[in-house]
Amino acid sequence: MLRFSSIIPNFRRLRLPIILAAITALFVAACNPSNFRTQAAETKPLILSILSDPKTFNYALSQESPNIFPYTFVGLTTQNPITGEVEPELAESWEVSDDGLRFVFTLRENLKWSDGKPLTVDDVVFTYNDIYFNKEIPTDTKDSFKIGASGQLPKVRKLDERRVEFTLPESFRPFLQNMGTPILPKHALQKSVETKDSEGKPLFLQKWGVDTPVDQIVTNGPYKLARYNTTQRVVFERNPYYWKKDKPLIDRINWEIVESQDTSLLQFRSGSLDYIGVTPDYFSLLKREEKRGNFDIKNGGPATGTSFVFFNLNKGSRNGKPLVDPVKSKWFNTKEFRQAVAYAIDRETMINNTFRGLGQTQNSPISVQSPYYLPPEKGLKVYDYNPDKARELLKSVGFKYNSQGQLLDKDGNRVRFTLLTNSGNKIREAMGAQIKSDLSKIGIQVDFTPLAWNTYLDKISNSLDFEMALIGLTGGLEPNDGANVWKPEGGLHMFNQKPQAGQKPIQGWEASSWEKEIARLYVQAAQETDEEKVKEIYAETQKITQENLPFIYLVNPLSLGAIRNKIEGTKFNAIGGAFWNIEEVKISQQ
Fold first, then answer.
1. pTM score of the predicted model
2. Which of 324, 190, 249 is nearest to 46 (CA)?
3. How many Cα atoms occupy the beta-carbon half-sphere of 225 within 13 Å?
4. Which position among 75, 285, 474, 522 has the lowest Cβ density within 10 Å, counted as fewest Cβ atoms?
């Protein structure tokens, strides 16, 4: 599934599913392998930074990236970000029936959780049946497993102590890749799923928040949480019970919480950080300092994520009050209005000024690395800067200009709205400032307001108290990862969000015909096995999104990262980032 991205492209997310590995001790004393380390183990921590505090330690409830989970949890399989191949993780093997509807996974022997308790088939069945497929739990993971037009979910059952069976109602092409979804601990979470609060909601919805003592977070990945100090740092330490022996080679990872990219840059230049995502405004400075600073800038090519602005198209109400001012809602829900805004944004200037030329215009929700990406030369509609075209479109649907050049709707209301983004991200703040300026040239007044990350997320995913927003989403090779974005009931269908489980109801919510058609095509693409037909289906989805513009795509930057030379073994790329192969990474004795 896709997630909100808080940063473009400062800290590259470690993609899930992803290859991660950790150490299991070679010797045991007092029945606790954490008392020992292998001779290969390092004592120096890997020191990184993030822009804001984590929002949750509960994978099922997380929508943001970066997050702790690539370090702390793994699934039955993993996907190699270089080859794209699905590889074994907790499952040592799997068998697929001839009709492709039955998958049987065999777990590795003697798997354990970070608290030393056995990890079994019962955990797998619990994870899917009781959490991910639970109607009372609002998890985006569910969207990635809904199969067919009816949205049926796989049936999961235990065969024996090491084998678990997944039965699909019909063909589902991305299923094996999706099995990189993390397995969660039954012994630690079952009670919270079964117990309800005073409102009849599972206590699981409050489980493993960031106020939870870190020793209560039970993991199965290469690391476990060692410490969390609000606004300061998150510390990870090796999980001694992870299934891969003798790896990773780094004992501890520190996430320093630095709420300003400028401060992160200063800390990296002073040697306090081992890695920093290189934003375009820092590239020239850091490039000059590579040799003296003892680091190397890696170029992974075009980033896989997307950056865009979008309007709140939700026509519904809460408690009798419209989510969006009805006057503005009419503007936002007019296709020509959205197209005019797209034509009015000067993306080439944004690339040259904000991105220092280190990027290209973005026109599709699908990553350029994906075999399903439709380039403009093959029929994808683009919106190159054309303010005259923008004005023509606005006039064609009843907008007009007063003597001061201000845009008015047909009823004489001045066109003015608020644009939100997350503060602390210099790139997004610069993008927002330019959009404000660009739209003023066609008579629109934009009130640009950056907000703290968690406050911003609450507005666009919970309270829905916004008019226009600038954000990004993570990306990858498989478009179905974005099912939670493109299905109307999806948890990240943010331009027209339905209330998720546990949220206040919305009266009068409705999906447009083009939204429903995109969802239908995503279902069809997941059922299709002929690759050429899959490409045709996803090409059609991209044509629809660019015609109707639920998201107005902006710039696809290069994926750049500066890594200290003492950090050895990284295989930087746009999909996996710097540390997808953490089991091979070590810190040299410099």
1. 0.78
2. 249
3. 24
4. 285
